[in-house]
Each structure stands twice: as C-alpha cells, then as structure tokens.
Amino acid sequence: MKFTLMLNGEQRDFDCEPTRRLLDLLRGDAGLTGVKEGCGQGECGACSILLGDRLVNSCMVAVGQVADRPITTIEGYSRTTRFAVLRDAFGKAGAVQCGFCTPGMIMACEALLRQNNRPRAPEIRLALAGNLCRCTGYNMIVDAVETAAREGKGLW
Prior knowledge:
Layout: E1 2-7, E2 10-15, H1 22-29, E3 48-51, E4 54-57, E5 70-72, H2 74-77, H3 81-93, H4 102-115, H5 121-127, H6 138-151
Parallel strand pairs: 1-5
Antiparallel strand pairs: 1-2, 3-4, 3-5
C-alpha cells in the first residue's frame, strides 16, 4: 500500500504494509538511523520522534496511523537553532556518553520545552521518564535542559 509521509518537512512516498512499524520504515526505507531500536516495546525512548508536537515511540506506531501527519526525527530536528542550543547544553553538562539514548532524549527535551520553556527539575524528570539512559545518569541531563531553557530564552 502506498503512503505519503511528511517526514522532516519533506513529503515522502513509501510502499509498505499499513501495519509496519514506523521505526522500521524510518531506519530501513528512509535511512534515518538516528532513530534507534532499544526495547521494541515502547519503554526505553530510543526510538522517540515528534508526531506533530507530541513525543511518541516510533516502535509502537504503525505506518498507517501517521499518513499525512508531520513527523520529525533527530535528523530533521538537528537542522534547527533549538537543536544547537540543546546540543551545546548537553555538551556543557556532560550529559552524553555512549550516545545511544541521546537522540531520544533530545526529542523528549524538545517536546517538553515546546510545552514549558522554563521547566524545573521535577518537571524535566517527569518528561524524561520514558527515556532510559544507562551511562550518564539523569542529573546531568536535567542540568542540560535547565541550561538550554536559560540560554535559549525566546526560542521555545
């Protein structure tokens, strides 16, 4: 079946089963490998994307559910000024080690900052609750979000 997806601001056509996982289409057909498969059960956040303004785990979404809806992956988001602010804040805070969880964490941070441009630590922790990090620990990630909110004032 043919589907048109609005992927990172571009209209793209794909031919696949409507029940195919969006994660598999993004990584395989679209070549967007910043979207990772961690658990495959919607529990780790490594496959997080923005569907409109909503953070979703692409491993839990069927392609047929997202036709004609805007999808943003880390590859698309990385072309924005807001990404640069978050990337720099993550670096300053030492919030990146192996990098596997980082794309999903960044997408979760963007979703949070779109809703709340001055979040406090408890709100940040709640927003990141669906994203697992096995290396860095969450304190540095919370610090990074606070820094991004402060330094990116007016962007979100």
